[in-house]
Amino acid sequence: MASISSSPRTVEEIFKDYSARRAGILRALTNDVEEFSNLCDPEKENLCLYGHPNETWEVNLPADEVPPELPEPALGINFARDGMNHIDWLSLVAVHSDCWLLAVAYFFGARLNRNERYSYIFTKLG
């Protein structure tokens, strides 16, 4: 994975990070769908779709770090590409991406104090 790091520390920073990563993934699945589909070659290793905090996206292998710096997105998004209807495959990738976005947001949110967590969960993501 490219070294685009983010370490948000407040509710607002976490939401900004979440929104930017989401924008990148949405771009991959809409405006850049042809490029995204081509990068998901089923002959390659387990690939993941990453949204970055600068609103970009990337298809790449999972991080080598153990444990990883962030929760990992769904592995192997490329394997089902040719075995499914294209729209159904994109929908599956979108569902997995939504789950990953929430996992990353909650990963950062776990560092907040009780009052910040309450505000975060129920006002930004709820």
Automatic annotation (TrEMBL):
<dbReference type="GO" id="GO:0006325">
    <property type="term" value="P:chromatin organization"/>
</dbReference>
<feature type="domain" description="Alfin N-terminal">
    <location>
        <begin position="10"/>
        <end position="119"/>
    </location>
</feature>
<dbReference type="GO" id="GO:0000976">
    <property type="term" value="F:transcription cis-regulatory region binding"/>
</dbReference>
<dbReference type="InterPro" id="IPR021998">
    <property type="entry name" value="Alfin_N"/>
</dbReference>
<keyword id="KW-0539">Nucleus</keyword>
<keyword id="KW-0863">Zinc-finger</keyword>
<keyword id="KW-0479">Metal-binding</keyword>
<comment type="function">
    <text>Histone-binding component that specifically recognizes H3 tails trimethylated on 'Lys-4' (H3K4me3), which mark transcription start sites of virtually all active genes.</text>
</comment>
<dbReference type="GO" id="GO:0042393">
    <property type="term" value="F:histone binding"/>
</dbReference>
<dbReference type="Pfam" id="PF12165">
    <property type="entry name" value="Alfin"/>
</dbReference>
<keyword id="KW-0862">Zinc</keyword>
<keyword id="KW-0804">Transcription</keyword>
<dbReference type="InterPro" id="IPR045104">
    <property type="entry name" value="Alfin"/>
</dbReference>
<dbReference type="GO" id="GO:0006355">
    <property type="term" value="P:regulation of DNA-templated transcription"/>
</dbReference>
<comment type="subunit">
    <text>Interacts with H3K4me3 and to a lesser extent with H3K4me2.</text>
</comment>
<keyword id="KW-0805">Transcription regulation</keyword>
<dbReference type="GO" id="GO:0005634">
    <property type="term" value="C:nucleus"/>
</dbReference>
<dbReference type="GO" id="GO:0008270">
    <property type="term" value="F:zinc ion binding"/>
</dbReference>
<dbReference type="GO" id="GO:0003712">
    <property type="term" value="F:transcription coregulator activity"/>
</dbReference>
<comment type="similarity">
    <text>Belongs to the Alfin family.</text>
</comment>
<keyword id="KW-0156">Chromatin regulator</keyword>
<protein>
    <recommendedName>
        <fullName>PHD finger protein ALFIN-LIKE</fullName>
    </recommendedName>
</protein>
